[in-house]
Amino acid sequence: MNYAVKLGIYSGSDPRLPTTWSGTPANLIGALEKHGDSLPCYHAEPSLGRGLAATFLERASPASALFSKIGARHLVDNLTRYFHQQGCDTVLHISGEHLPHPGCDTRLRHMVFIDSTFEQFLMPWFKERYQRRSRVVKCLLDIEMRRRNRCYRESLASIDHFFVTTDWVRESLVSSYGIAGKRITTCYTGTGNISRIATIRDSAHPKILFVARHNYLNKGASLLLEAFRLIRKKHEHAGLVLVGPDRAGLGIPESEERVIVHPFLEWQELERLFNSASLFAMPSLYEPYGLVYLEAMKCGTPVVCSSTGGMSSIVRDQDCGWILDERQPQKLANILDQALSDPDKCVAMGHKGQSFVEANCSWEKCAEKIQRVCAG
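Given the sequence above, the corresponding structure tokens read:
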């Protein structure tokens, strides 16, 4: 390869599969291998019994401390042996799963590529999952979350360098985990296959676009629908296009006008929508990153995102969209009203977002930053 170390790749699932983490590991590996050798890869494949045991313990109680600690150490020891056998001296962990633990083999350098920290994603996710449980379960959950966060903090001390998708993650590593800024590189990611194409944005009949293949409720489909209904009378020619959700699941009657639902679209049609929409909105409950926002920005479409994820730092810094601070229908409706009332501002924001993506967001640029750190 172009640098003097032998790099290995670890991911919780097969990193070469395009379905793992929306293709992030596969795309990154492809960019790293473009000018060098094939990279050894390792991923966790728990046995059926181990998977069932983990499921049982997770459902029985959030306090599965002993099992998770032993399992994680066993896996890290196995991947360390594997990469030693492959002649590697550096491992890039793609995701924050199964990081090295204190006392593990230190002959390998460990680096990590993440889109969020434990406190940014997993802690809020667990709290949301168990919010309707009893007070006792919530107490156990709080104890378990603090324990896991301590383990996570200990693991971070063993990481040589951090590659993060946004400055939002950098800020958490520095302020919450005491990681020195010189050990962190913001490298963003590449985008998907959506490209900028010549098309006309109809400002007289603006379209608001939402795209989410999975978990569309958590990604804000129903919230966006409520907000659109609040501004529909004022913006009587505007339309809402939802790609991915189920009409019945959102309770949208067939007779409802100017709300179009596509459970599935061919790639070319989806690309046309990204390029013709006046605004892309996905007010997710949790969204550490989100390639779909970058795809919209790549097409010159301004975006609306929630303040709870990493995209907020890009949107705020680049002034290429709006940030929803409170997930309330009227708050979102106010943003939609602002956007639809000022098409010139939308165009300007779209240009800023497009320039940012073109300058910073490619798998080749991401790989180059990783190579430079490895070479140093």
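Confidence is low (pLDDT under 50) at residues 47-67. Try to locate this feature in the token string yourself.
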